[in-house]
Amino acid sequence: MKKGFVFDLDGVITDTAKFHYIAWKNLAKKLGITINETFNETLKGISRMDSLDKILAYGQRENEFTTAEKEALAQKKNDEYVKLLADLSETDLLPGVHDFLVQAKERNIPCSIASASKNAPMILEKLGVLDFFGHIVDPETLKKGKPDPEIFVKAAESINVAPKDAIGFEDAQAGIEGIKAAGMYAVGISATETLKGADFQVTSMTELDIEQLINQ
Ligand code: B16
Ligand code: MG
């Protein structure tokens, strides 16, 4: 029987990808780089600095900026992104998320967050679900980002659950790879792509049966 749940944030709990896209697109435009939605897909689950590096490489400008300049660019993007999140509320939770968290709480199943986002605590608070999570892994403490398993191992251990006894929920391929490398059961959530390696895939959390899941 499984004993704990580890959730990604963007694409699982809420859809912040659309706001990341607007902010990155505007920053890229100022640098003379045009990105589209297909390119934006490749930024899902990737850290802020890695996303900037990918955009600069895409525009063939990867060797033009110092680390300090890149940090300033990433900060500029984040300032716009945070402004776009101003009106985020409970209505922005993805379908089935609230019900699932309530059911986990009723069964005393601990939950944690494994998100690459440094904005995760603020976003969860705005969504009104912060109290459901025993721990949010601080991405600043990580040596490597997804698909490395580190974030998922830390998230499971933070709620005192061995990775083999935990279930991870992810919408991105890099995340599924990280969950599997951590030795956890992987639930993929995506209506648009097949997540390779997921133990089970649904298009939304409304399709999940918590009893069936924990009895894996
Ligand atoms: P921030 P996740 C990820 O969230 C996003 O998918 C990715 O696009 C973003 O660059 C990353 O968080 C970092 O976010 O700039 O807020 O620190 O899917 O890992 O929850
Ligand atoms: Mg995600």
Automatic annotation (TrEMBL):
SUPFAM superfamilies: HAD-like. InterPro entries: B-phosphoglucomutase_hydrolase, Beta-PGM, HAD-like_sf, HAD-like_SPP, HAD-SF_hydro_IA, HAD_sf, PGP-like_dom2. The keyword Coiled coil does not apply. It holds the Pfam family Hydrolase. One of its GO terms (biological process) is carbohydrate metabolic process. Keywords: Magnesium, Metal-binding. Its cofactor is Mg(2+). Binds 2 magnesium ions per subunit. Mg(2+) binds at residues 8, 10, 170-171. CDD domains: HAD_BPGM. GO terms for molecular function: beta-phosphoglucomutase activity; magnesium ion binding; sugar-phosphatase activity. Substrate binds at residues 8-10, 24, 43-48, 51, 77, 115-119, 146. The record marks 115, 146 as: Important for catalytic activity and assists the phosphoryl transfer reaction to Asp8 by balancing charge and orienting the reacting groups. The active site is at residues 8, 10. Belongs to the HAD-like hydrolase superfamily. CbbY/CbbZ/Gph/YieH family. NCBIfam families: bPGM, HAD-SF-IA-v3, PGMB-YQAB-SF. This is Beta-phosphoglucomutase. The lineage of its organism: Bacteria, Bacillati, Bacillota, Bacilli, Lactobacillales.
